[in-house]
Amino acid sequence: MQLRIYNEFPHDLEKEWNDLLGRTAHHVPFLRHEYLKTWWQTRGGGEWSNGSQVKIISTWQDEQLMGIAPLFINEERLLLLGSIEVSDYLDLIARPEDMPAFVDALLPYMAENVDGWKTLDLYNVLQDSPSLPALESTAKKLGWSYELENYQPSPHIPLPDGWETYLAGIDKKQRHEIRRKLRRAENAEVPVDWYIVNDGSTLDAEMDDLFALMRYDEQKVAFLTSEMQDFMRQTAQCAFEAGCLQLSFLTIGGKKAAGYFAFDYLNRIWLYNSGMSLDFREYSAGWVALAKLIQWCIANGRTELDFMRGDENYKYRFGGINRHVMWARVIRS
């Protein structure tokens, strides 16, 4: 293997990068070249300072890209681009069969060619990623420390081919609640509608409306800095251009009551963020919007709805099944 290091984001590597990602064990939208480029340009919506520096390391064999470690350095830590808060799934990028050799080459190369780091912190790595045993094995060979922690749950719903089949698979009480709330919305005195944004010329205005809905949550008020809004706008635009944005809204009486920002990618829906108005609590707007989204997923043949990180109660009420993301740490000796 030949190894190369990039101290600036490699804009010309997009095709090879995304082609390799498609052959990995966990092909996730947060590892696509264009997403991480947007993340780096905004430093994760202001999560990281401009003092951080890209340290992307790639491996090649016969001029073919074999592995990517999409890293950046902050103080004495190397982290995955995308870390930590706004990218739900991250990882090293290599085919499962190539991962052990990639990591065996990567860690010594980092030790010799990247100055100033003491720890490699990999957040949001799915629990069954082949990179985790590879990192443990290589760290042991080098006499370095390896630590692994269960970082967060990440519930998902495997979707059947029918709405009634889906309802039959969740808790009886929650099934009744979903049906009751949908009936109330259908029988409301004002029109209740649900739609997906398809017009790119309205995307900025639709994102403004999503931010307004998000601000009903006090925690999200602090989250929605100007830098974070810029990151989310750019991410939405990037996803729209790639054909994988799903931005949906529930309207009640012509006013937006709930919105979901998601990715429609690899026949799955990845729920990224949401906002709910408190002005329509009697209609249970959040529940109705999510039920409408699940109905759309089933009707359109999507195989999974991924709630992504977080253990909010509503995810389990709708049938969420846990998987976990991990935090792996390698400490140099």
Helix/strand-derived category reads: alpha+beta
Termini gap: 25 Å
Largest sheet: 8 strands, mixed
CATH superfamily membership of the largest domain: Gcn5-related N-acetyltransferase (GNAT)
Contiguous helical run count: 12
Share of residues in strands: 25-35%
* CATH topology-level name of the largest domain: Aminopeptidase
The CATH architecture term of the largest domain is 3-Layer(aba) Sandwich
Which regions have little confidence, pLDDT < 50, spanning 5+ residues? Answer: none
Q: What's the order of the H and E elements?
A: EHHHEEEEHEHEEHHEHHHEEEHEHE
Count of β-strands: 14
Portion of residues within helices: 25-40%
> What is the averaged pLDDT score?
96
Query: What is the top-level CATH class of the largest domain?
Result: Alpha Beta
Taking all Cα atoms into account, the compactness measure Rg is 21 Å
Task: Write up this protein.
By secondary structure, this protein is of the alpha+beta class. It has two domains: 2-153 and 325-331, Aminopeptidase (3-Layer(aba) Sandwich), CATH 3.40.630.30; 156-306, Aminopeptidase. The protein is 37% helix and 29% strand. Strands 1, 2, 3, 4, 5, 6, 7 and 14 form an eight-stranded mixed beta sheet that branches. Strands 8-13-12-11-10-9 form a six-stranded mixed beta sheet. A hairpin with a 2-residue loop joins strand 10 and strand 11. The chain is elongated. It has helices spanning 14-21, 33-41, 43-46, 99-113, 131-142, 163-168, 172-186, 203-214, 218-223, 226-242, 285-299, 313-317, and strands at residues 2-6, 53-61, 64-74, 77-80, 93-94, 119-126, 145-153, 156-158, 192-196, 245-252, 255-265, 268-276, 304-306, 324-331. It has twelve helices and 14 strands.
